[in-house]
Specification:
single chain, about 120 residues, mainly alpha, 4 helices, extended
Amino acid sequence: MVTLVGTLLATSLALGLIALGVRSRRWFAGRPAPIQFWRGLLRLPRSFLVDVHAVVMRDPYAARMHAAVAGGFLSTLALALLIYVMGSGNAGLGWGLLVTLAVMGVGAAMVAWRRISRPAGR
């Protein structure tokens, strides 16, 4: 049985892919630059997981904040796809979804606290 939430999730995923296609057409509109595509693609996980986190780890609060928001978001997205698009009606997945939403909410609260207590001006 297809639910409204599952339909909305699948539609938003499809629209995201369409937007990615539109954005990629803009990338190809410029002059080509000499790149090593496969080497860059293989380096991407290391660049993201090591280089970005090295910068974030300079501030332990920012590291925990980013981990809660990003980890909560990615796990919520995965569970929502399992539950609403794949149609898995497992109650454990529902509770897991609630927990991951709470983790993401804690991260968002940390962001709000950070912005209120220390306004950007660095």
